[in-house]
Write a structure and sequence with these properties.
The structure is a homodimer of 201-residue chains. With 201 residues, the first copy, chain A, is mainly alpha-helical. Chain A contains 10 helices and no strands. The first copy, chain A, has helices at 13-36, 43-49, 54-60, 75-84, 92-104, 112-122, 125-136, 139-150, 157-173, 179-200. In chain A, α8 crosses α9 (157-173). Chain A binds a DNA duplex (30 and 30 nucleotides) through α1 and α3. Chains A, B: Residues 1-20 are annotated as: Disordered. Chains A, B: Keywords: DNA-binding, Transcription, Transcription regulation.
Chain lengths: 201, 201
Amino acid sequence: MDDTGNSAAPMGRRERKKAATRQAIADTALRLFLERGYDDVGIREIADVADVSTTTLFKHFPVKEALVFDEDADQESGLLAAVRERPEGQSIPAALREHALRYRMAAADGDARFTAFFDLVDSTPALRDYAQAMWLRHTDALAQAIAEESGLPESEPACTALAHFALEAPRVARGHDDPRLAVARAFDLLEIGWRALVSRG
Amino acid sequence: MDDTGNSAAPMGRRERKKAATRQAIADTALRLFLERGYDDVGIREIADVADVSTTTLFKHFPVKEALVFDEDADQESGLLAAVRERPEGQSIPAALREHALRYRMAAADGDARFTAFFDLVDSTPALRDYAQAMWLRHTDALAQAIAEESGLPESEPACTALAHFALEAPRVARGHDDPRLAVARAFDLLEIGWRALVSRG
DNA sequence: CCAATTAGTGCAACTGATGTACTTTTGAAG
DNA sequence: CTTCAAAAGTACATCAGTTGCACTAATTGG
């Protein structure tokens, strides 16, 4: 839909300044959030420190939560690629499991800033919910990719079901002592069911 | 935790009045919501019409959404009963499917007030989300019941996975032309996977 | 009857978010 | 270069949900 952020695009002074303002706001917000916690930093303060008005802030970010997820990038393309470009013989749920384990559960081993970021999101209900809601917006696209790859009709509800469950899987892990195992088990359930369902037509 | 609402409990004048106030607030709110829509009725107005202060209102209901779900009753016991008292030979996912189809997708055929209520919830994002969040709070209890019934260790992540997915299933239906079919398919996926998973130990 | 709770009140304030009207900047057309 | 309209930003007021505080009044248990 919107192709902002393409580094190759020669944008004029105007768009550059706009992007700079946006970045300044997001950076300020994230810094303050990491310092003092999401709930203890108000919109007015962020705008103040970033030296813009609250009106301007909300012109760049629709809601407070969005300040944290500025660099969404395209998670969706990665997700779809995981399905479409999976190794020969690997089932779709298996590919999604790999992707989930690699991409969503990789918090621990990155550098400190990433860890802090994940901690922030993880420990703030509002941010967790927002992130999950964003994640679920890919359901339809994923369902369509699954339908194409599996040869099932696009309208087949099982495709939507698999897509939805796969996207919910990381959430199942919450509260388990071994999150990776929990996610793996959730995908086991889906994989076995999916195999049988596909082979029967 | 709290055992309010037990009709057999002889509560004193105080608790009776409290319950009456609560009921009056909830009734007023629901009436206004049905008349004019959830988003077009403010907290202050509800309190005003119910003749209480907003402070009092919030002492009975933690957030605006809660005004609509006053009569939660115990969905949880029904859910657990569906699993524990299922017919001989019926799998756990099958029992959950029956329960989902009967209890969650039954909006259309009740009397008009129920229909209107479901429409209200269904057409208001804030209420949908709140309802789903409430629904998911039963995950742990359901997972435990599943573990007991299936003989798997309580810590087995697959139990949590099945519980979570089963509770999410109704959401898969959203946006499909035939919601009941979509839900059924979602449970098919779970049932087949579950059978295999249990039989392997 | 006294003392401790506790429902309820009134009011002010805070926080996220929106609407309106006004100024500046900028890109581009003439 | 001038002019003009769109875009970006600002100031200010306001709304809605929610909370804190100080206080009253009813109730209940000892």
